Structures are given as C-alpha cells and as structure tokens.
Amino acid sequence: MTFRQDHHAAPSSDYPLLGELPLARTGVDRGCERRMDDAWLPSLMHDDGTRLLLLSQGRAPVRDGALVLSGPADVPPGSQLVYLGRSAGHEIVLAVVQEAPELPGADWLGLRDVAAGLSALDAGLFVEAVAIANWHAHHTHCPRCGSPTDIVHSGWVRVCPRDASQHFPRTDPAIIVAITDDQDRLLLGANAQWGGRRYSTLAGFVEPGESLEEAVVREVGEEAGIRVASTRYAGSQPWPFPCSLMLGFTAQAESTAVVPDGEEIIDLRWFTREELGRDIVEGTIGVPSGVSISSALIEHWYGGPLPEPRHLEN
C-alpha cells in the first residue's frame, strides 16, 4: 500500500540574503514532545493512517516529482524506525531498509538529485530522514566506553546501557563564504578533490570555541592567504552528507594577492561576471549547481541563474 501525501508550502516569513534555500524548507511539525513516550513510535506501526518514508542507502522513492510514502504493512521486518513528525493529520515515520523494495512507478533517488524540485514538505522530510539516518549509521556505540547503545525517544536519542550516558544527533557547523574585491569580482577556488576544474566558494568547519565570523576570517586566511572584512550572514541550510549545517556569508577582501594553501585549494581565481559566464559556457570550468548553498551564493552575486555549458572539453 502506498500513499501520495498532500503538499503544503512552508509558512511565509522573512528570510536572509539568500532567501529560502532548497534544503532549508519544511512543512512538518517534528513533535519533539511526542518523541519522549516510549510507546509512541510502536503504536504508530499499528495505525493504518501512519505514513512511512522508506530510505535505502540514502535514497528514497520518488514518483512524479514527489516522495512516495508507504503504509505500516509495507515496511520490511527489522527496519530501523525514527519518528519524523506530523503533517496534514498524518504521523510520518522513517524506515531505514536494507534493500529498496519495488514500488510501482517509483524511482529510488538521492536527496541532491531531486531536492530542488520537491515541495517544502517533501524536501524537509527527505533532509531530516537522511540526516538522522546518517547519525545512527555512524554513532552505534558509546564514545565513553565503546558499548553498543540502545535507541530511545522514537529514534532521537541513544543511551549507553553500561554507563547510562545519553547521546544526541550531531550537527557540525561549517561556514561558506562568497568573497568579493573592490571591483566586485568574485573569488572562487579549485579543490584538489575536484581535479582542478571545478571552482567554488571557500568553506570550512567551525572550530571549538570559535564564532562564525572568526571562522570566516580564519578559513579564508588559511585557504587563500588574505584577510576579509564586512562579514555578512546570508543564509543557512542543512547538508546531511553526513551531518553538516552550512552557514553562508558574504565578505569583502582587504587585498587581492591570493595564495592557495596547496593542500585543499590548488588554484584561486578572481572572476568578473562576464569571465565566469564565458568560462562556464565554454566548459573550461565547472561550478556547483543544484541544491548547494555555494550555488546560491554564486548566483546571488551573478544576479541570476548561471548559464549552461555549451560543451565540455575532452
């Protein structure tokens, strides 16, 4: 049995510079207070009105541009369950399955493949599901004593049976910044892992005891060898690959003599809008696209959607 969910837009509100980002939308009430009842999640599996989002290796079933939600009877035995929340009168549960079952007309797709085209409800459910599933997959044992932990609170807490310590889902904050100079050129860097042809905004994780603004200054200094000022918050969105929260900023460079660190960043370039557009069209460089906040930062500076490449070099 499968269900098609009702689509409801996220409530309107004021957004920062980048507006409403693809992975920052939601249409679900997570119901944190309901998670605390140990009988809550099991009871939902006996309710035919419960809807389940199946997830297999980070992929979920999608049909006609929408997530396909299943009923309790469709969930394979032994699936890991996590309560996701309530929407349109339905309780929604994540079921992490080992193998993706056949669902008529559905394709199993990853979050990055489809998030931009999903409704706010679907996007919010998908990113929540991937994030919590990744946490469970990577945090199965107590970090204090190494004992396997038990899952409680409807999938949102793990408890060590030996020392009774509680462990909660982890989120790692990371800054990402669009840097411009006094000519309004944009600084983009090529990461060694991307083969030197894909250019993006600079980013890095926030260190313990560090503010977001300090992280921007430090990361830019480490990766590009320059100082920045006039740091301005632009927006944020989760990036559950596996557990980041990307916090976007803009900043002004105090100088333009950039030096790549040679480890993470192997090349740095200042782009005018004309130069960036031309290089993308000619296929000499690639840039982030889709649901990434880097793409949003670049397009905000560019003034609209980036052009499509005309061809790719061999």
Layout of helices and strands:
Elements: E1 2-4, H1 32-35, H2 40-44, E2 51-55, E3 59-63, E4 66-70, E5 80-87, E6 90-96, E7 107-110, H3 111-114, H4 120-138, E8 150-152, E9 157-159, E10 166-167, E11 172-180, E12 186-191, E13 199-200, E14 202-205, H5 212-224, E15 228-239, E16 244-253, E17 265-271, H6 273-282, H7 293-302
Parallel strand pairs: 2-6, 11-16
Antiparallel strand pairs: 1-4, 3-4, 3-7, 5-6, 8-9, 9-10, 11-12, 11-14, 12-13, 12-17, 15-16
Please state the structural category. Answer: alpha+beta
Mean pLDDT: 92
Strand content: 25-35%
* Secondary structure tally, helices: 7
- Describe the global form: globular
How many strands? 17
Low-confidence segments, ≥5 residues, pLDDT <50? 1-12
Radius of gyration, in angstroms, nearest whole number: 22 Å
What level of helicity do the residues show?
A: 10-25%
**Main pleated sheet:** 7 strands, mixed
Q: Encode the helix/strand succession as letters.
A: EHHEEEEEEHHEEEEEEEHEEEHH
